[in-house]
Design goal:
Blueprint (H helix, E strand, L loop, with lengths): L7 H11 L4 E2 L2 H6 L14 E3 L4 H14 L3 E4 L16 E4 L6 E5 L4 E4 L5 H9 L3 E2 L12 H7 L6 H4 L6 E7 L5 E5 L11 H5 L8 E8 L1 E2 L3 E9 L2 H13 L6 E6 H11 L10 E9 L2 H17 L6 E3 L2 H12 L1 H8 L3 E4 L8 H15 L2 E7 L4 E7 L5 H21 L24 H14 L13
Parallel strand pairs: 2-4, 3-4
Antiparallel strand pairs: 1-2, 5-6, 6-10, 7-11, 8-9, 8-10, 12-14, 12-15, 13-14, 13-17, 16-18, 17-18
Helix pairs in contact: 8-13, 9-12, 13-14
The protein binds flavin-adenine dinucleotide (FAD).
The site of flavin-adenine dinucleotide (FAD) has 38 residues, from β3, α5, β10 and α12.
């Protein structure tokens, strides 16, 4: 695609549209918005704009459409697949100033928010009204609802409560040509025409800019208990996940952490963590309406792990002890990054019964390729995070081995009925692998949808598809 480059003229026209205080072309801002949490890639925008309301977004998109300037939307900038990186330069449109919680509607159990609201702020605000917004990515205190919706973010609680897509009932979206549409609303059911909300959720900022979101809320479960269960090895922990699910126990979360991750976290935190010498751990949360309900599940779960020879577990009921158990899980990604600033993070998802096969085979494949790896993630929903570390390898060794490692890991996931991404999306760094997981007809339909909505190819180009 041929795009108009951003020059001084474009900057002053944007200043005319939005006002000077919302347009940034200084080196510091251009540098800041050149990267997100993706370690291997960065791109500099031509200009950064920070609209304060939907009408501003409409005006920027009309201008970009008429002038054929690429626009990359961004909310919290915590994405790990390069989705918010302006790979063609152009306008970086940051939604960070649109950060108001407009309404918590206690009658309808819904809330209406702007895209720049930090997810954790929303969860805490609705909890004050004894309501629950379950999607809880580990980046909960830095990622935003707009980005969460754009990739359908998940989190530990997906095993029981689903991911972001399960909570979106309404959207306001600005399309590439600057037209604006409201979809759905505060309704629990909706069979009114095509499911445009379903199309927008997970579209990674390539089809429209999300400027308002209506989300369904649940009553806050009053009781919860966390369990930390150590296993001798990776296979034991992975097998336990399948056994728990087979027993029809539905924990709120089942997180999985392997031995290497525990050691890196201990080094990073510079403090002892429970069961640090385990071959792998499961962190399980049971929640519910009554203590009785939780106790019954706890006994059944205890029975499952005892059958596997586990004698010792930690049970945490107070929020302080629960926080201590979760600390190790929450900092894994930061600890891995600290250990190896260059790394690659995969988030394949496999059917839950195939988790043991996947972890054993993928770990073996990475060892054979000669790459250090750390496995952790949302085992309860089959979404295993595989962090592959560059460590002391040369750039050339790293690139060759990584390409082979990704080919093998994806091949194993595919053979087991899995998919390329459970929650992070395709973005910039995985697009050349999409066609190995989606058949030709499906891919053709996806590309036609993109062409129909964005025939000028200005909205978040070079993402999802090659
Ligand atoms: C430490 C850490 C832990 C993480 N843990 C998890 C986890 O547990 N689960 C999980 O799912 N992810 C996790 N992530 C990844 C990341 O936080 C999520 O992908 C998150 O949803 C990104 O939100 P964001 O607001 O930062 O989006 P950004 O990074 O700003 O953008 C992400 C994508 O959404 C698009 N986008 C952003 N805003 C809009 C908008 N308003 N309209 C249209 N498109 C938009 C962007 O163009 C980009 O393609 C983690 C990341 C880190 C660094």
């Amino acid at each position: 695609m041929a795009y108009r480059a951003v020059d001084r003229g474009v900057v002053s026209e944007l200043e005319g549209i939005l006002g000077k205080s919302a347009v940034f072309a200084d080196p510091e801002n251009l540098e800041k918005y050149s990267s997100d949490e993706t370690t291997e890639v960065s791109f500099r925008p031509g200009v950064v704009v920070k609209p304060g309301k939907t009408a501003d977004v409409v005006a920027v998109m009309r201008y970009a459409w008429e002038n054929r300037i690429p626009v990359t939307p961004r909310s919290g900038g915590t994405g790990v697949v390069g989705g918010a990186l302006p790979s063609c330069g152009g306008i970086l449109l940051s939604l960070e100033r649109m950060n108001r919680i407009r309404e918590v509607d206690e009658e309808n159990l819904m809330c209406v928010v702007e895209p720049g609201v930090i997810t954790g702020d929303l969860a805490r605000r609705v909890a004050e009204s004894r309501l629950f917004y379950p999607p809880d990515p580990a980046s909960i205190d830095s990622s935003c609802i707009g980005g969460n919706v754009a990739v359908s973010a998940g989190g530990p609680s997906a095993v029981k409560y689903g991911t972001t897509k399960d909570y979106v009932t309404g959207l306001e979206v600005v399309f590439p040509d600057g037209s604006m549409a409201k979809m759905g609303g505060k309704v629990v059911k909706n069979a009114t025409g095509y499911d445009l909300i379903g199309l927008m959720v997970g579209s990674e900022g390539t089809l429209g800019i999300i400027t308002e979101v209506t989300l369904r809320l649940l009553p806050l479960p009053p009781h919860s208990v966390d369990l930390l269960i150590p296993f001798g090895d990776l296979t034991g922990a992975a097998t336990a996940v399948s056994e728990i699910i087979k027993e029809r126990i539905v924990p709120a979360t089942i997180e999985f952490i392997e031995a290497e991750a525990l050691r890196v976290v201990r080094e990073f935190l510079k403090k002892e963590i429970p069961f640090v010498d385990a071959g792998a751990q499961l962190l399980v949360r049971l929640d519910g309406e009554t203590k009785n309900h939780i106790e019954t599940d706890l006994e059944r779960l205890w029975e499952v792990v005892r059958r596997m020879g586990i004698e010792d577990i930690v049970v945490a009921e107070s929020s302080t002890t629960q926080d201590r158990l979760w600390e190790a899980r929450r900092v894994i990604r930061d600890a891995v990054q600290w250990k190896s600033p260059v790394k690659n993070g995969e988030d394949v998802v496999v059917p839950r019964s195939r988790i043991p096969d996947f972890v054993v085979r993928a770990k073996g494949a990475l060892d054979e390729v000669g790459l250090a790896s750390i496995f952790f993630g949302h085992a309860g929903d089959g979404n295993i995070h595989v962090e592959i570390l560059k460590g002391a390898l040369t750039d050339e060794e790293w690139e060759t081995r990584l390409a082979e490692a990704r080919r093998r890991v994806y091949g194993i996931a595919r053979e087991l009925g899995g998919l390329l991404s459970g929650e992070h999306g395709i973005g910039y760094i995985r697009k050349e692998y999409l066609d190995t997981f989606i058949d030709d007809a499906g891919l053709r339909v996806m590309k036609r949808i993109k062409e129909a909505i964005d025939p000028r190819g200005i909205l978040n180009p070079e993402k999802i598809f090659i």
